[in-house]
Amino acid sequence: MTLADDAIAWFDVNARDLPWRQPDTTPWGVLVSEVMLQQTPVVRVEPAWRSWMTRWPEPAALAADPQSEAIRMWGRLGYPRRAMRLHACAVAIVERHGGRVPSSLDELLALPGVGTYTGRAVATFAYGQRHPVVDTNVRRVVCRAVEGKPDAGPATTAADLTAMEALLPDDEARAARASIAFMELGAIVCTARAPKCVDCPFHDVCAWRLTGLPLPEGPSRKPQRYAGTDRQVRGLLLEVLRHATGPVSRQRLDLVWQDEVQRARALAGLVEDGLVENLGTNDFVLAGDAPRGDVQSLF
C-alpha cells in the first residue's frame, strides 16, 4: 500500500459531504468553489456557493450581468476582488470557449485570475486529470509524512509540486482521487495546530510522528488581525455600496469609520482595485453600476 492508497481508502470513508463534490457538479461549479475557498473556511463558503450557483448556474449567466452584481452577491465572503476575477473569468469562458469551462490545463491557466493552484484543481477535480494539486493543507501533509518536518514554509514552490506528483498513482482517475484525499487529510486531520495523529491513515509511517513530532524551529505564524485594519474598513464601505439603490455620497460613507485618514485610504484602495467607481467628487458606486461617461479617475 502506498500513501496514496491509504489516503484514498481513508477518504472513501471520511470525506465531508460538500455540494461541489457531488457527481452532478459541473466544472463551472468546481471553479466557483475553488475561488471561494481561497482563504475562506468551508462553513462560510457552502451557503455562498449554493446561492451563487442558483443565480448563475453557468458562466454565460454571470457574464451577462454587470460586474457590480458579482460584487453584491459576494457579500461578506471576504477578499471581494475574487468576485471580479470570477466575473472576468466567466466573460473569457464565453468569449474564448463558447461558455464551457475548458479542460486543458494550459487553457485554464490562461483565464483571468486562474493561477497555478486553481487551474490544476479544476483540471483534476472537474475533469479527473492527473496533476499535482498543492495547497497549504497538502503541503503540510506531504512535508510531515514524507520529510518529517512540522510545516512546509509560507509559499508553494516547484519542489512542492514535484513532491506531490511523485506520490500520485499513474491512473488518472485514481490520481485525482488521491489529490482530493490528501487535501481532505490536511483540512480535518493533519491540521496545523492540533493534528489528530491517531485518526490519520499515515499514523504508522509518518516521518514527523516517528521522529517525535518536533515543533517548528522558527516562530509560528499568527492569524492575520482583522479588527481595525484597512480590510475591515473596506468591508464596511462595500457593505454600504452593495445595499445602495443608487450612487452613495462621500458624506454617507464618512459615517462608517471615524478615522478620516484610514477611511480615505480604504476608499481610495477600493477605487484603485476596480471594486468601486467614482462618479465625481462626492458620489460612488460599485464597479459596473455607473454609465461609462460618468466615471472619474481622480478623487
UniProtKB/TrEMBL annotation:
Pfam families: HHH, HhH-GPD. Its EC number is 3.2.2.31. Residues 36-188 form the HhH-GPD domain. Keywords: 4Fe-4S, DNA damage, DNA repair, Glycosidase, Hydrolase, Iron, Iron-sulfur, Metal-binding. GO terms for biological process: base-excision repair; mismatch repair. CDD domains: ENDO3c. It is an enzyme of class 3 (hydrolase). Its cofactor is [4Fe-4S] cluster. InterPro entries: DNA_glycosylase, Endonuclease-III-like_CS2, HhH-GPD_domain, HhH_base_excis_C, HhH_motif, MIG/MutY. The keyword Cytoplasm does not apply. PROSITE patterns: ENDONUCLEASE_III_2 (PS01155). One of its GO terms (molecular function) is purine-specific mismatch base pair DNA N-glycosylase activity. It catalyses: Hydrolyzes free adenine bases from 7,8-dihydro-8-oxoguanine:adenine mismatched double-stranded DNA, leaving an apurinic site. Belongs to the Nth/MutY family. This is Adenine DNA glycosylase.
